[in-house]
Amino acid sequence: MDLTASVLAAPASPVADARVLVVLPSLGTSVAALWQQAATELTALSPETTVIGIDLPGHGRSAPIDVPAGTSMAPRMTMSDLAEAVLGTLDRVLPDVAAPGAPVDLAGDSIGGATALQLALDHGDRFGRIAVFCTGAKIGEASAWEERAQTVATSGTPTQVIGSAQRWFGEGFMDREPEASAALLHSLQDADRFSYAALCYALADFDVRARLPEIARPLLAVAGSQDQPTPATKLAEIANGVPGALLEVIDGAAHLVPAEAPTVTAGLLADFLQGKGLGAGAGGTGGAGATARAIRRPTCPQPPVRERPAATRSVKPE
Questions:
Q1: What's the whole-model pTM score?
Q2: For 104-139, how does the pLDDT look when each residue is reduced to its tens digit (9 = 90+)?
Q3: Strand ranges of the sheet holding 294-298, from the earlier edge strand across to the other edge
């Protein structure tokens, strides 16, 4: 499985304390449509960071998976298969963008977040900090993913556009940001049907709930308050399962927080990757039963940007 990596943002000149952030997209989206704005804003806050985006198979710039001519069935894929393909792609491109030994962090949305969890379990020693957005240790029901895989393999990804437009965005986002929402929906319509279906099979079989305490990396879980496929309780489950993890809930956002709230996303990542606000966890004193700290933030930060708005409040996850 060949995946394509793109440099979304990079330092203007070489820096001594360079680090790399790898970002992974949601099912149906290209990494550029989902992450480009947040990556650009992140490098303004953390000029030492190079952001590398890796597209899913058959999405964005990545080639479709191989299928026999004339087939109407997609091959099955697992999340471990996808994680290994991401790691192989990273190993191929990393020498061209970073010096040996540069810290590598990881962030992903939806299936990208699930892939990040799989990588944290299988290759945790390869990464520093991990941020997962709008995802779950198990997402949806297997039967629904199996049905969607069959529908898309037969009739194509345009069958998913209307439903995705309803699930992906918080209230009013499509009116406020027509270009961003159109780019995301176009990337869905252009995605390869067999690759999309194979990824549905990976989600059908994915369930790492029992393994969350094995993750030994600092982890940030970010939810959208209006997310239907992966509500905040899904992110709270991850944050409570991973020792010392943090939970953030973004008010007014739904399933694609990096695109819906790029400024907030960049601020969260900049602080997290620099170790600001990190609770106990990997290297800390927290245990597997530690309760995550949840902070609600508005989709758009209030001025001054670096101060917490008066309306922000701490809440305990369910």
A1: 0.88
A2: 999 999 999 999 999 999 999 999 999 999 999 999
A3: 5-9, 49-54, 19-24, 104-109, 130-133, 219-224, 246-251, 294-298, 314-315
